[in-house]
Amino acid sequence: MPVSRQVKKARALEAVKNPAQRSAKSRSGKLAGMSFKEQQAALSPAAGKVSRGKKKEKEEEEIYPTFWSSTVRSNFSKWDKNGDGFIGHKEANELLSDQSIKGDEAAALAALHCYLKHLEEESNDEWFDENDGLTRADLRAYEGNDDKGRKNSDDLRHVESTNSAGRRAIWRKSEELFPNGVPNLAALRQGGLGDCYFLAALGAVIERDPRSLVRMIEKNEQGKEVISYTVTFPGKLGAVTVDKPTDAQIARYSSAGGDGLWLTVMELAYAQARAGTKEPNPNVQEEIGEGGLLSTGISAMTGNSVNTDANWATRQKTHRSRLDKAFRDGKIVTAAIMSKNELNLPKGHAYSVIAWDGTNVTIRNPWGSNPGKAPGSATGVFQLTLGRFDEIFSEISYEE
User: DSSP of 263-318, one letter per residue?
Assistant: First the structure.
């Protein structure tokens, strides 16, 4: 066989063995028509953009990382426990109880847990339903939308504000259950869960007798350190023990900030009581965070039966009589608004009824505030005459 053919064959075999050499040769034709600067860019390990075209390069540059998305990205591998490329629902839920996750990382995890069902829809990278969890592609798609675009999305516009709220809750937290001796109703502020029906009842209990809440919660210590709390609910929910809240749980649940851990502990315990002992790590959103009846919250906090009146079908005389009896007997009362109203008070929402003087009903929003033009915008506490109450509110529930 002639030498020239042997040399060609040897070179061909070497190219097969050495993909980098083969790739370089395949690019040689393309590089020939480029300027020196373009050749350097094309051969750079960080490049490849020139050959893809200006449009693709522009698309790749137009990303809008946020503090939240950057925190999630930097922790993605650690949170993806099984290494399958997804932060799944079970993984995110289990991570909430991880005591080693602190501060900003914990707040970002809490926001992810809150909006995971929407975030996993950001890119079409799964077969069939987008329900396996967050991927890096989903995160990249989220970052590919600017702040204005995210705020226009009903599903994702609150991710950043939820992250910020979680960070504030962690910064302001107290390590004590009741550092001031008893809970302060003004510190009760609903977090990212839809459990207003429970918090309205909890607020009414605190207004009636704050020490009754102190009696419901027992600290469990190991040495001199508190490791868990046992909450004894009246009635069928009974006693349930939960670990000391993590930073991520403080960010995900409601928090009373410097007033103590009592609010987070109560939500943790309520979620566990609803899930039962067979589920050691319940998903709080599924257990208590999707809304509920006024009667459910009152029963949980008192163990007693409940009477609920629809305002449209109840005479004012009946309301007056039942309010008189409830506050005379020391019973708790909650109410709900189900439709848009002229006072701009939040609808689809439950409120504590904390006082009645025979003329005016005093009401508190579990948010601890109301929209700017609504009554009680600063504190969530406001008064309505009984007539106005009947017009604005849809129903009222009384502990029996």
Answer: HHHHHHHHHHHHH-TT-SS--HHHHHTB---HHHHHHHHH-S-EEEEEGGGS-HHH
Q: Say if residue 163 is exposed, middle or buried (CB neighbours under 10 Å; 0-12, 13-18, 19+).
A: buried
Predicted confidence (pLDDT) at residue 49 exceeds the cutoff of 50: no
User: In the 8-state DSSP scheme, what is residue 363?
Assistant: E
How much is the pLDDT for 245?
A: 97
pLDDT of residue 211: 98
Q: In what order do the strands lie in the sheet with 225-232?
A: 217-222, 225-232, 239-243
| Of the candidates 31, 9, 11, the residue with the CA atom closest to the CA atom of residue 21 | 11
- For residue 31, what pLDDT is reported? 42
pLDDT at 151: 66
Between residues 126 and 73, which one has the greater pLDDT?
73
Q: What is the dihedral of CA 153, 169, 120, 274, to 10 degrees?
A: -110
206-215 contacts: CB < 8 A, separation 24 or more? 207/352, 207/354, 207/355, 207/364, 208/330, 208/332, 209/330, 210/182, 210/183, 210/184, 210/185, 211/182, 213/182, 213/183, 213/262, 213/266, 214/178, 214/181, 214/182, 214/183
Within a 10 A sphere around the Cβ of 234, how many other Cβ atoms? 15
What is the reported pTM? 0.82
Q: Output the six-digit token pair for 385.
A: 């005459």
Q: Which residue has the higher pLDDT, 11 or 230?
A: 230
Q: What is the pLDDT of residue 60?
A: 52
